[in-house]
UniProtKB/TrEMBL annotation:
Cofactor binding: number and manner: Reduced FMN (FMNH(2)).
Name recorded for this polypeptide: Chorismate synthase
Gene3D superfamilies: Chorismate synthase AroC (3.60.150.10)
Enzyme Commission numbers on file: 4.2.3.5
Assembly and interaction partners: Homotetramer.
Species name: Chlorobium ferrooxidans DSM 13031
Pathway: Metabolic intermediate biosynthesis; chorismate biosynthesis; chorismate from D-erythrose 4-phosphate and phosphoenolpyruvate: step 7/7
Amino acid sequence: MIRYFTSGESHGPALSAIVEGLPAGIPVTPEEINAQLARRQQGHGRGGRMKIETDKAEVLSGVRFGKTIGSPVTLVIRNRDWENWTTTMAQFEKPDAAPAKITIPRPGHADLAGRIKYGFDDIRPVIERSSARETAARVASGTLARLFLRSLGIEIGSYISAIGPAAETALHPQLASLLEKGAETVSAEADRSPVRMLDRQAETAALAAIDAAKEQGDTLGGIIEIFITGVPPGFGSYVQHDRRLDAALAAAIISIQAIKGVEIGTAFENARKPGSQVHDEFHLTAKDGAERKTNRAGGLEGSMSSGQTIHLRAAMKPISSLVTPLQSFDLETLQPTLSRFERSDTCAVPAAGVVAEAVVAPVIANALLEKLGGDHLEEIRERLERYRESILNTFRG
């Protein structure tokens, strides 16, 4: 099974990751990984750090002649800003001119709980590892699983449906036709927008809202729509809590910094309706077997994939580093004071959509491997084709 670990600090020398469990034979190029890293850096409302970094991943192991070889893949992303932080983030000897300790926690961040948990007398170590800069390593890692899925006809995409008060009023009318071409078509269309929105009226409102928030020293959150196409029914399981696909997908998304809510399909709207207006009815066809005219369940029933497009929605809170400070206190003096500012973004919702695409990829890949097994791509492809055929045979009598 695929698992990955990331390491590194926001202003340290580099971020790194080890991805274990990838089958052999997956085509990989640096351009594919770096294209996803570049997508993560885009979006109106990003801060000064994105002007410094141009993220590129170095592959140190696990790939030969452009294909995975079944062993762990090691990835490294250098931090260009490290040269400005060698004193603050010195790894061994403490410099004579050591930077002042940070003792004022920011509301909404990991600062206070992290300092207490790890026994620091300085919040800086908490800031460095809890930073969303870590998601660059997750995007690089998730891209490897994404390339595996793409080779099997499974695609992942996203767009932004709301930023602050700017929101589309309903799912975009072109969404269904885009999804028919695959979820990556949704992302390609969304990436044409500086805020990764499909609705042009909402885009205009979002751009204005971000500019206004920046001028006021404030930040904005938003809502991300994530889609996965090409997943056949029966991935995941209802038999144990830790094999439920919906739980694993929700956990992956909620693990992203600043994500505070996950919805599957139209779950919260469904909660206000009777069951007769919620559940997706079956319609049998000779060509495709069981079909649905609706997808209110978001492609997941009984904690398993239903064969429909998997639709997830993530709520991102506004970033907690504000130019206009909130009320806080000094941990050394225990006196009330205003919170401090750490260089940050006004809005990172468009980037979070790219991160969400990355973190769900290993989840789907593991559900596939749990169902089908296999150690190399061609073996797995053959098994998936047979599985798809067996599903159709169920409805052919």
